[in-house]
Amino acid sequence: ETCYQFYKRSPSGVAPEIVQFRTGTNDFVIDAGAAHSLLRPEAVEAFYHLYRATGDERWRDYAWEVFKALRKWARVEGGGYANLKDVRWTREPSKNHDDRMESFFLSETMKYIYLMFVKEDPLPIDKYVLNTEAHPFPVVSSYTG
């Protein structure tokens, strides 16, 4: 839930790179010096695993909201996506683009979002494990070492 709140409570709907929690509260602030976004995968990765483990549709709903915000604010005219200079910016999206897209955005962030919505999961969690770069490895039932 906390990861989704970073998206939901950001003016653009895209999570900032860093948030600061307020002491003694359940609240956080987006610091001006860390309001940029590299479009990292960790939150949607968590949504993916939670959805696959529980079947709870809210995780897919969260992933869809994140996708819509990314498409609206980070998508570059003509194709591709760009990091955001400031997630609090809600005017013309193209003026907020950093001329850069990290490789993990497509290989991880978008992969996890895609996997949330395919009709038949090509990577069932009882047969595959995803490493930290979202590469699938088959689960080996016994070690013959």
From TrEMBL:
Transmembrane segments: none annotated. GO terms for biological process: carbohydrate metabolic process. InterPro entries: 6hp_glycosidase-like_sf, Glyco_hydro_47, Glycosyl_Hydrolase_47, Seven-hairpin_glycosidases. It holds the Pfam family Glyco_hydro_47. Its cofactor is Ca(2+). SUPFAM superfamilies: Seven-hairpin glycosidases. Pathway: Protein modification; protein glycosylation. GO terms for cellular component: endoplasmic reticulum; membrane. Keywords: Calcium, Disulfide bond, Hydrolase, Metal-binding. One of its GO terms (molecular function) is mannosyl-oligosaccharide 1,2-alpha-mannosidase activity. Ca(2+) binds at residue 132. The keyword Disulfide bond applies. Belongs to the glycosyl hydrolase 47 family. This is Alpha-1,2-Mannosidase. It comes from Lotharella oceanica.
